[in-house]
Amino acid sequence: MWLSIDKNSDFSIHNLPFGIFSTPKTSKRVGVALGPWIIDMTKLADLGAFGGIDFDKNAFQKEFLNDFMAAGKTVRVGVRQVLQQIFEDPCSPFKGFASDFLVPQKDAILHIPVKVGDYTDFYSSEQHAFNVGAMFRDPQNALFPNWKHLPVAYHGRASSIFVSGTHFHRPKGQTCPDETQPPIFGPTKRLDIELEMATIIGAGNEIGDCISVDEAEEHVFGFLLFNDWSARDIQKWEYVPLGPFLAKNFFSSVSPWVVTMEALAPFRVPITAQIPAVLPYLKGQHLQNFDVTLEVYIQPAEDKGQAEFLLCRSNFKNMYWTVAQQIAHHTINGCNLNVGDMLASGTISGKEPDSFGSLLELTWGGKNPITLPNGLIRKFVEDYDTIIIRGFAQKGEIRVGFGEVKTTILPAK
């Protein structure tokens, strides 16, 4: 390859994730991350790089990826192949024009990549569901009777999903610390993270039609890192009988680069056996998960961003219900998905305590505070703390990363 890319870069030639960027001199547009660079797809298209692929090149000039995603899998795969050919050919005719279409990432502003029409949040990690059930109900009956029969989910709030680097104020709401007394109003004292992945829908279905498990992945464009911020004390008071509302709708954070299905193909792994057997519409010929390492770090307010510490390390493969099963269940009643819809995985927790994907679990409801290496103590997220989620897949010399989603908590207004 004629560009020099660090072997540990998240954005290798094997990755080529899509996003939206701008610079002081250019408007929002589609870009592809490659090492420390962003490929300006509008400029590269103007040079004729994609002339052999039949689609509207104006999709690269849009402020969201939706139009490009709607062009379909064949176009997406074709564009990735052209990019790999260009940068792997030392005699590429485009090499001499590199300064025209390569933008240093440090000079760019990254924007939310997708116009999210609808957002569904699943609850698909068995260990997370077990931990929550054991904590608040009965360890002997931690899972609700339906949990192993269907991918539990609820409809979330799309308008409050923002890209990495966007900060938010601590939310306020009703809590009831003492249920023998009336509720009180004020800022949450139990602001929590939820380590998740988000599936981006690249092809929808008509109302009344179902998407089968074996067809489901054809409807996926790619994946993002996702932090489903949660106010646990607000959630505890409000969730009966319909589930969380103000406890979760105030803010969610996503990473800026969408990693495609093709980039993750080398990292497929078998799923854990699903017992009891699922209903026929949730059975598939090739159900798989993805081996993606996920890490959460904290930069404590007291250190003013000078130090960061690992809170947990989990993996996307720790999912009981697969992405394909989530999509099949979502549409089995005829619900129509649209291009740009986002399906979050739910908190991803492993079996070991240091792989739990939320502070609720890591501190066991605040009963076991975390002592950071610098001596600071955390039960939940404090004002001016910064939380960073990173993710990557690695097999030999092939590395595919997601970058990061980074958010700082501001005091309540």
From TrEMBL:
Domain Fumarylacetoacetase-like C-terminal residues, every copy: 120-386
Positions bound to substrate: 123, 137, 235, 239, 347
Domain of life of the organism encoding this protein: Bacteria
Binding sites annotated in the UniProt record for Mg(2+): 228, 248, 252
Enzyme class name: hydrolase
Keywords: Calcium, Hydrolase, Magnesium, Metal-binding, Phenylalanine catabolism, Tyrosine catabolism
Active site per UniProt: 128 (proton acceptor)
GO biological process: homogentisate catabolic process; L-phenylalanine catabolic process; L-tyrosine catabolic process
Pfam families linked: FAA_hydrolase, FAA_hydrolase_N
Cofactor names: Ca(2+); Mg(2+)
NCBIfam families, per the entry: fum_ac_acetase
Protein's UniProt name: fumarylacetoacetase
Organism: Runella rosea
Lineage: Bacteria, Pseudomonadati, Bacteroidota, Cytophagia, Cytophagales
